[in-house]
Amino acid sequence: MIDPLKQIRFEDMKTLATGAAILGTGGGGDPYRGRLIAELAIAEHGPIRVVQPRELADDDLVVPMWNIGAPVIGIERIEKGDEGVRALRALEEFLGQKAVALSPVEIGGSNSTMPLRVASMTGLPVVDCDGMGRAYPEVQMITPTLFGIPASPAVLTDTAGNAILLQTVDNLQMERIARAVCVQLGGRSAMAGYPMSGRQIKRAMIPGTLSLAFHLGRALEEAQTGQDDPIDAILKVTRGFRLFSGKIVDVNRRLEKGWARGYFDVENQGKTVRVDFQNEFLIARELGRGGRVLCAAPDLIMSVDSHTGEPITTEMLRYGYRVTLLGMPCDPRWRTPEGIALGGAGYFGYEEAYVPVETLVKWLIANG
Amino acid sequence: MIDPLKQIRFEDMKTLATGAAILGTGGGGDPYRGRLIAELAIAEHGPIRVVQPRELADDDLVVPMWNIGAPVIGIERIEKGDEGVRALRALEEFLGQKAVALSPVEIGGSNSTMPLRVASMTGLPVVDCDGMGRAYPEVQMITPTLFGIPASPAVLTDTAGNAILLQTVDNLQMERIARAVCVQLGGRSAMAGYPMSGRQIKRAMIPGTLSLAFHLGRALEEAQTGQDDPIDAILKVTRGFRLFSGKIVDVNRRLEKGWARGYFDVENQGKTVRVDFQNEFLIARELGRGGRVLCAAPDLIMSVDSHTGEPITTEMLRYGYRVTLLGMPCDPRWRTPEGIALGGAGYFGYEEAYVPVETLVKWLIANG
Fold it and tell me: Does the beta carbon of A167 lie under 8 angstroms from any beta carbon of chain B?
């Protein structure tokens, strides 16, 4: 059992951002930027209180917050700083109710820390949970969708001062419309949506994932400074598997409709594994030889530096990196037929039926 | 002086829609559909009261309403009927104030009648004015922009039930974001925006244009049933000019980013005139021979059936039609440097300096 986080201090941010970036499966934004932004806010406004879902009253209003768009743009374009607070206030005003707490929607390099900045600026606590237990590229891909909880109303804001409030008939329409708005706003926007009651948070969100990210980051740091293998430390906390190690020999990444889409190839001793991504890593497959799948969404594909165990996100990928690909079983909610339909590789057009990563790894070991 | 309209009855709709479609310079939606929709509402809810801008109290809230998107889609896709009312109510709720009256933003086949349906359904009057004295393809192209009046807040609704509230930092951003949303909503949406006080309506809108459209439609009908030439009747009311008559020999029309874009060619005795459009007709030029401009926005290019004088809108254009192209001086507000920058052909990428249509016609007569 992991000790739950009670607060997030300045000195916790590096640890938290690193662990979150590993769980972010390549996406969820840049961890260094996510860390700096939260650190800046904490330095000015003080530590952030963390509450557990069970501590929420049933009718508390919790507002999940995130950045939508391509992480690459998140690195290249400087924010004004008030984008998140403006989105929160616009949503509160529309709802006629004040938020009691904020939450991340996903665990990832900067999207698990984005609500921390807003929490620090507003004095609100964050709930120790998220809606994925990983990161996903599209707005509707969140466990609340599986529980019939609407993304509406939601607000997008940008640095220029635009604010767009969306009420859509379903969460897929929210994705389509919010994405089109985001592209017009320059490819990356702050977003507040999926407003939930405390009761809904307890039912539909994945608890304890901020604590998990922090614990993972700490385990990695301890291994890095001690005698343990950093990758073994990651596998222990995530209950994950080694899939493949090698050198990145090709990166194909393009900005398309506000996403970073493409693939990268990892080569070792004549064998090549290709990982396709849309912000996040979607599927890892051997090239040639029947193209066996090593791991596919909704399970987590994680890419880390083979030497240090540090996460390598989509926008960091480059030729020559020595990486190790890891696989981790997703939250069981994603393994239901509805979960696989919502967040499985099949949604992105891959034809292979979903097989849990632990089964795929058994096959790999059995067949060499 | 034209008698101002006091109310719009079922039997007035054909006349009004026809006159509005002529002034719509090819755009503003299909007049037949616009007429039927308003007739249906009036048959159910009764006639619509028309008020003059001067009758408004200074702090009355007036909400302009229109359909955004390609007129072609407006014909092909059936509306539910409550799109406009839902947009109005969402805007009122956000403003915390009830509308006292509605108004068109433009004069055109269905966009001058769109607010009539909502007026009839809600019992609100419409103001005898619009923001163009013609039709234009983009949201910011409206005289209130020249007076610094924001398009925000504005609401888009669709048939499925989505509602998007936009607050943008300027009216050009409103155009860009609303257009992207509109495309996601299927290419055509109801829209309420440019909320104005009675004082602002009096200052920034063009008064009397619903009455002008009705008067134009009536003059045309009288000519059609009497001995007068229908086109002469149009020219008398609009103070316009004959530019060219001939047969449509080419129509190039494509749906692009939610607009109907393209051109059509009119030929007569070896001479061809090409009219470019983006929903509305932008520029009419001779092909070859130095390509003289006959008329360009912001002045109105009107295309009517050479025999009956009936308006031919962008979506009705087809090979073989005998058409007469007419030019009409725009409202003087569009002839200021700011007006020409906002609504002139130059905005759409044409390099020719703006010359008033009455000057162009003098040159044509002088040079044959």
Answer: yes
Chain A: closest CA distance from residue B256 (Å): 15
Domain A7-209: assigned CATH number = 3.40.1610.10
Residue A238 main-chain phi, psi, to 5 deg: -90, -5
Q: Is A32 on the interface with B (CB under 8 A)?
A: no
Counting Cα atoms < 13 Å in the Cβ hemisphere of A247 gives 6
Torsion of CA A123, A128, A133, A135, to 10 degrees: 10
Instruction: Round to whole Å and give the CA distance between B315 and B321.
Output: 13
Locate the chain B residue with the closest alpha carbon to A174.
B162
Residue of B nearest to A164 (CA): B166
DSSP A112: T
- Residue-level pLDDT, tens digit, chain A, 368 residues: 678 999 999 999 999 999 999 999 998 878 888 899 999 999 999 999 999 999 999 999 999 999 998 777 777 777 888 999 999 999 999 999 999 999 999 998 889 889 999 999 999 999 999 999 999 999 999 999 999 999 999 999 999 999 999 999 999 999 999 999 999 999 889 999 999 999 999 999 999 999 999 999 999 999 999 989 999 999 999 999 999 999 999 999 998 877 889 999 999 999 999 999 999 999 999 998 678 999 999 999 999 999 999 999 998 999 999 999 999 999 999 999 999 999 999 999 999 999 999 999 999 888 86
* Residue B87 forms contact with A (CB below 8 Å): no
A160, A177, A183: residue with CB nearest B164: A177
Return the sign of the alpha-carbon dihedral for residues B187, B264, B32, B129: positive
Same CATH fold assignment for domains B7-209 and B230-367: no
Domain residue ranges of chain B, discontinuous segments joined by +: 7-209, 230-367
CA atoms lying within 13 Å on the CB side of residue B90: 28
Residue A298 and residue B178: Cα distance in Å, rounded? 34
- What topology is assigned to B230-367 in CATH? CV3147-like (2.40.390)
**Closest to A177 (Cβ–Cβ): which among B161, B162, B173?**
B162
Taking contacts as CB-CB distances below 8 angstroms, the residues of chain B near A169 are 160-162
User: What are the distances in angstroms from CA B38 to CA B33, B35, B120, B160, B368?
Assistant: 9, 5, 8, 21, 45
User: Which backbone phi and psi does A20 adopt, to 5 degrees?
Assistant: -65, -40
Sort residue A74 into left (φ over 0), alpha (ψ -120 to 50) or beta. Answer: alpha
Whether omega before A311 lies within 30 degrees of 0, making that bond cis, reads no
Q: Please state whether beta strands A188-192 and A154-157 pair in parallel, antiparallel, or not at all (unpaired).
A: antiparallel
CA atoms within 13 A on the CB side of A232: 7
Cα–Cα distance list, A141 to A134, A175, B204 (Å)? 11, 9, 46
| Closest chain B CA to residue A166 | B164
The ipTM of this complex is 0.85
